[in-house]
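Attaching the record inline, Q. Sequence:
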Amino acid sequence: MPERDQLLEVAVEAAGSAGRLLLERFNRPATGVERKSSSTDMVSDADRDAEAAIRSIISRRRPDDAILGEESGVVGGATGLRWVVDPLDGTTNYLYGQPVWSVSIACEDAAGAVAAIVLDPCSDEAFTAVRGGGARLNDRPIAVSDAAELQRSLIGTGFSYVPAVREGQARSLVGILPRVRDVRRAGSAAIDLAWVACGRLDGYYELGTRHWDRAAGVLLVREAGGVVSSLAPVGESGDGVLAAGPALHRDLERLVTGALLH
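Structure, as predicted:
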């Protein structure tokens, strides 16, 4: 088995373990809820325990690889490979009982992601990709949409937890919303990117995403035939990501960057 497929096998096993743990606790009273970057940015024992489950499997099967996790930081490695883990992308949805959240895992080398999974346990959907091998949804090949016109395109986005940044993002929607079919805000960047990869969204943009939010989803989009680019920070937002099919990407990028700067 090629190494990229072995890495995907590890990612699938680890995501499945975390997904089962999270589903068992979903819609039950949350424990260990704390705030992180702001009063609205939350983490719970579910996040921490899911990451521990993922780290346990990766450490057992790939003991010399590095791991970067949202909740536990970095563990160094010696192989040149690094696992990027978001154990629960969409914590707010999870804590409110909304079934839009995911487990996101990517394995990277110096050139970027080699293998990735975004697992949606509530829908029993596993979006997977390996570099050079295409993207799949539950073993079925997927592709980005062929949308080419902004006014007919369904676009996903997300919002910062920082009030001042959210205010700027709200203003930018005035310039974006009238130019597209509609805008959706699901609450999980990893799912948004997975939905671009399978054509449920024509495009997606968001400022302030962290590396673990997007590492797996970026590979999914690219292996599904899409284009991914970075968004420069605006104020205190942090950098971001924009993804779409090749026929739409340039026009969406122009629209979004112009709106964000006004």
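The chain has two domains: 3-141, 150-260. The helical segments are 3-25, 45-61, 91-95, 163-176, 189-198, 211-223, 249-260.

More tomorrow.
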